[in-house]
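Deliverable D5.2: sample structural annotation.
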Amino acid sequence: MFRKKKVVHLDPEAWERKVKRMRTAVICALAAVITGIGVYLLVSRVIIPSNAYSAAEAALAKGSIAEGIDGFSLLRPYRDSAKRAADAAYSASGGEYDRLKDAEIGDIIEFGSYEQDGNPMNGPEPIRWGVMMAENGTMYLMAVDVLDMHNYHTEQCPITWAECELRHWLNGEFLNAAFTENERLLIAKSIVSTANNTVSGTKGGASTEDKVFVMSHEELRRIAKNGDRLNDLGLYAYASKHAVKNGVEVSQYGLAQWWLRTPGVSQSTVTVTNMGGQPIYSRRPNYGKIGVRPCIWVLNDRIAG
């Protein structure tokens, strides 16, 4: 036979004091959390951008044009940063902006030059770019053709876009070879974020600050949903003769695979777009024969997003 457990009741005043203490503790904890969030937002969205904005202004004032443009470009859409970057670039670029100012989403334009016909003796050819989307005073350009062959990385190992050799090549050797100093002023330095692989959860890695990059899987999907006028540009791509000469594998129609920056199903693989324009997740970072289709954000605050 079970005995009833005796219930001990606190006297009402003691219970009320206990409740008040608990309520006070909860309120203090919530206040601390809210204060912490407020401080974080103040620092990240006001103080840091304001300091960076002032630094960009100072760079322009002392004649460091490229530094000032890059500073304002990285801040967009904070205040009028995109316009400040564009105005400075237009003034310093020696008329290069004229070829960009009337561009619209879906257009194919020429900007920069790179060896493509396989005959270096006749000089580099103009690079054709598809205007894929626009936001925050910039337009997103993707090379219409696969321009060259380059491994994502030099060895088979866990890798992300932030550390890969392809990123360093694009923002060094390729950037300097493909664009004049004035043209480089019009290319916005951007914060490039790479999401995790949506199928496997493989980590995308740290965000980077780049002028040239390759497309992510998310950007590919976003562009593919933007309408038939963009699909006319082709999410599949033909390889230049120069790219084929350097080892890019092509189909009987001249179509090539090209790197995305999204990780593959494991940290040691990378996503590529196949010859039909569909992403696959199984290529080693040092796998040869895959092409590069560069992307850039170009300053143009007159294009409608």
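Annotation notes: Residues 10-88 form one domain. The longest strand covers residues 125-135.
The annotation will be released with the project's public dataset once the embargo ends.
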